[in-house]
Task: inverse folding
């Protein structure tokens, strides 16, 4: 009998350690009238190209968001997670939002610095004004503010501004970067030199690289998670269907190519890449369930994304503490 009781106690302790995330809890479809469309010349691949990096893709999730995770005694402090993104994160700051759900699932404090309508890239300026006054409604702009390279100023989101003003980035454990279709919709180039005055930060990949370097300097202990754009479909201002992200180009690339480029950049910096385009369950058969209008996640879509992110973070925590 003593052996049986001892075995049960050990099993319970192992379960507690296995699922602990450890560290504590708190706190458009846009009209495409200006989208430069190319004639479709080739179909999208069945799966986007994933560049090699250990522990890239999350495993199939087995937990649900409502599960409670015990805190391992070995964890030195509560998790602190920063979220950087656009409408899919900024527009839902209640209990249905991705940041909130991840905070609950990981028993973590979350800081949502997302700004609706923002892009990864800065907006290029042919008159070179961007060289002196950075467009801050972008990932690269916010990263410069966090790194002390740019003045906060009006960044388009008072909630993000207020959170940012009191944030100590040196204490952050994870930074989740999640930008979906905005760079595609605004015709941002995938990569390359960009405008001569911008140093490449007006391109998708150039801005990602600059932002990652800024964030690594200001948050040296943080693990960065890049979440790719997801499968989407697009309509014009008259609600006429234009195409989906596998067959519609913006003149520079297809949306799945932005996901591929993000994978490449993640490989360059050896950071985690979450392949939302292929692995988060959004496809032709699930669009109506996971999306509200083609590019914005529904309640079910946000919950699915939160579950995947919880999985990634918990797996990393288990690896770290083992």
Result:
């Amino acid at each position: 009998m003593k052996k049986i009781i001892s075995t049960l106690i050990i099993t319970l302790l192992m379960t507690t350690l296995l699922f602990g995330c450890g560290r504590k809890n708190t706190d458009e479809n846009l009209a495409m009238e200006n989208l430069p469309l190319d004639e479709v010349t080739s179909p999208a691949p069945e799966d986007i190209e994933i560049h090699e990096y250990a522990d890239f893709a999350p495993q199939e999730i087995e937990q649900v968001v409502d599960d409670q995770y015990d805190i391992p005694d070995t964890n030195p402090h509560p998790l602190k997670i920063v979220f950087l993104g656009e409408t899919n994160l900024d527009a839902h700051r209640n209990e249905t939002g991705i940041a909130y759900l991840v905070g609950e699932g990981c028993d973590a404090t979350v800081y949502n610095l997302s700004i609706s309508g923002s892009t990864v890239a800065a907006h290029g300026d042919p008159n070179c004004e961007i060289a002196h006054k950075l467009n801050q409604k972008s990932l690269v702009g916010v990263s410069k503010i966090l790194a002390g390279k740019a003045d906060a100023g009006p960044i388009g989101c008072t909630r993000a501004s207020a959170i940012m003003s009191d944030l100590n980035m040196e204490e952050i454990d994870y930074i989740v970067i999640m930008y979906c279709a905005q760079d595609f919709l605004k015709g941002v180039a995938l990569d390359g030199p960009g405008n001569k005055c911008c140093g490449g930060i007006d391109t998708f990949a150039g801005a990602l690289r600059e932002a990652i370097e800024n964030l690594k300097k200001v948050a040296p202990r943080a693990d960065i998670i890049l979440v790719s754009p997801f499968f989407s479909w697009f309509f014009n201002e008259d609600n006429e269907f234009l195409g989906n992200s596998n067959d519609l180009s913006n003149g520079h690339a297809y949306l799945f190519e932005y996901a591929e480029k993000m994978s490449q950049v993640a490989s360059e910096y050896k950071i985690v890449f979450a392949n939302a385009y292929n692995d988060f369950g959004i496809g032709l058969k699930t669009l109506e369930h996971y999306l509200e209008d083609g590019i914005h996640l529904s309640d079910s879509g946000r919950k699915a994304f939160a579950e995947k992110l919880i999985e990634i973070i918990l797996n990393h925590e288990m690896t770290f503490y083992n």
Remarks:
- Strands lie at 80-85, 109-112, 174-178, 223-227, 233-235, 241-244, 272-274.
